Amino acid sequence: MGEHSDLSGACAGGSCPPSQYGNLDSYHTLSTLSTVGFIVAGVGAAAGVTLLLVGPKDDSTPAQAGLSVTPYLGPGSLGAVGSF
């Protein structure tokens, strides 16, 4: 977008002077890369949503959900074991 506004000021009437040809080439290159980036992101998002919707469901939920803390006392030791 910055390249576009720079070229809009320098290129009047849709034609650019030879001094702006490098900026124009850069603008076209960045435009192409931006388009490719958006396409890749869209394909990735579509693949992710598809995998979330049709992927296998994990039915192995833990029997006890939440926080669990169990204290222990042994010869020469004292502590707690927990899970979440």
Number of strands: 2
**Overall mean confidence score, pLDDT:** 83
Summed up, the helix count is 2
- The arrangement of helices and strands along the chain is HHEE
Major sheet strand order: 1-2
What's the helical proportion of residues?
40-55%
What is the approximate shape? elongated
Report the biggest beta sheet as strand number plus sense, adding barrel if it closes: 2 strands, antiparallel
* Oligomer kind: single chain
Binned strand content: 15-25%
Supply the helix-strand structural class: alpha+beta
Distance between the termini: 48 Å
Q: Runs with pLDDT <50, length 5+?
A: none
**Rg:** 30 Å
Short description:
With 84 residues, the chain is α+β, with helices and mostly antiparallel strands. Helices cover 51% and strands 17% of the residues.
